Amino acid sequence: MQAVLYFRIYPRDNPRIKLIVGLVWLLDLLHSVMVSAANWSYLIDNFGNPNVADTIFWSVAVTIAFTAVITFIVHCFFCHRILTLSRYNWFITTPIFILAFTRLGELCATLPSRNGRSSCISYSVCLRMDSIIDSITVYTIESGLLTSVVTVVSLVFWVTMSNNLIFLALHFAISKLYANAFLAT
Q1: Which residues does the UniProt record annotate as the domain DUF6534 (predicted)?
Q2: How many domains does the chain have?
Q3: How confident is the model at residue 108 (pLDDT cuts 50, 70, 90)?
C-alpha cells in the first residue's frame, strides 16, 4: 500500500528513488511468497514431525537472502540521506557504509546456517549536529527502533533457544519492518 501511495503522491520524484521503491516493494513481495512457502513446509508438509525444528528449508534460506538485500538497500538509502544532509561529511557516513557492506558480506558467508546477525544503523545517526540533522536523527530512531528491537530479540532467541525456531518467526518480520521504515520515509 505504501508503494502505491508513493507512486501516486510523488509522480515526478527522482527516477532512481522510484526504482529503489519499486525494487524494495518487489523484494518484499517475493519475501512474503517465500515466508508462505516456508510456513507450508513447516506446518503442512511436516505436520506432526517433531524433528522439523532441526531443518532449515530452502525457502527459509531465500527469505534470509531477501532480508539481507532489503536491509542493505535500506541501510544504504538512510546512509545516503545522512550523507546529503550532513553536507557530504564522509567522516560520519563511511563507517555506516562499511557496516552495511560488512553485514551483507557476513550474511552471505553464513547463509546456510541460522541467521542471527544484528544491525545498529539506527543508533549510528545519533550525532549532535545542526537542527536538520537532529530532526533526521529523531525520525530515523523512531522509524528504526522497532526494527532494532525485533532484530535483537530474534538474535537472543536464536542464541538461547537453539532447539526451536521461535527466532525464525521474528526474523521473517525483520524484512517487513525494514521495508516499511524505508517506504514510510
Answers
A1: 121-185
A2: 1
A3: low
Distance CA 145, CA 177 (A): 10
Contact 66, 34 (CB under 8 A): yes
Cell numbers 527466532 correspond to: 167
Q: How many helices (H) and strands (E) does the chain have?
A: 7, 0
Burial 32-46 (b: 16+ CB within 10 A, else e): bebbebbeebbeeee
Tell me the pLDDT tens digit for each residue of 38-77. Answer: 999 988 999 988 888 778 888 988 888 898 898 899 889 9
Instruction: In whole angstroms, give the CA distance from residue 145 to residue 33.
Output: 26
Q: How far apart are CA 124 and CA 29, in angstroms?
A: 29
